[in-house]
Amino acid sequence: MRQIPVDTSGATVMVAKAPQPKVRDRRTGEIATDTESGARLMTVDVMFAANDDVEILSVTVPEPGISGELTMGTPAALTGLVARPWESEFNGQKRHGIAFRAVAVTSLATTGAGSRAA
Asked: How far apart are CA 105 and CA 63, in angstroms?
């Protein structure tokens, strides 16, 4: 499948929805795993702002690639972001879109001197 590298150097990226496990099969609840590493896959929704345009992207990331606290509004960096066009047919209906995948999503939020109380 063709992968198109996405340049994030001029973009502002913020977490729109915290990481959640990527479900492979909604009927069984099976969680998707990376075919190469076997790591559990996560989905992180991010606000991607570039060239006076803002979009919400749903990015798939292997769980070990998620670092820092990624809560709504957290500035983040996307490492190795690629776009993959996809197309499928189900019950005679054709669907298509673009899937986004990154090697890592890292929080860019600065941590305070103190720690949070539990």
From this structure: 10
